[in-house]
Input
Amino acid sequence: MLPELLAWFTGKEVNRRKFPRKRKPYRATYTLDGKSQRPAIGLDISGGGMCILTQEAVDKAEFDVRATLEQRTVRMRVKTVWQDNVTHQGKTVFRYGLRYSGIPADDWDAVIRYTTGKTVAESNKAQEELVAVRMSEDDTSRLLPLELQNRLLQMLVERHRLAALDEKATPLVQYFYSGLVRHEGKPMHRLTIQSKVVDNDGDEMYETRFVFDENGENVLILN
Output
């Protein structure tokens, strides 16, 4: 429901997949026993899965993969979704479409940075985490469904961080979007709302951090 939000944040065209997919070859290896590494060629990768070529058939439905994205090696546990045979450099090889069954949070963040055109280097991670882009009123109306907006605002009202909603008055809020994060093992959108409560004693400012899933159904407050 919300791919446009991530596309707006990254400055990329909307990709109708759940996550942007980068189609660029990369080096990879896989292991069936957790010890010996076998060569593979990565064809594409996204925040949800990847496609690789192998010289031999993989006889396990679930196995471990290492992928080299720029100068960083990321690790993931994968499950086979589909497989077929293709010709590569005159030889018949095996092609696998894979879905992540497990991936460390830092490695998943690196994959997301790679597929959205950001620097993968770990040294830039802290800087990337701090990026928050203010959404204009038009951005908010266009990218956040009204039902989700109302739910977020009502959660602020319940915590006395915003005055009761009034159809005739514009809520005193500003929205700041920070992209995707992996929260409790699941990809979630990050959004900060700055809100103001005005009363006889003066103005009170609040900053509330939310995460919510792709459907906008599971919404959590982090502070």
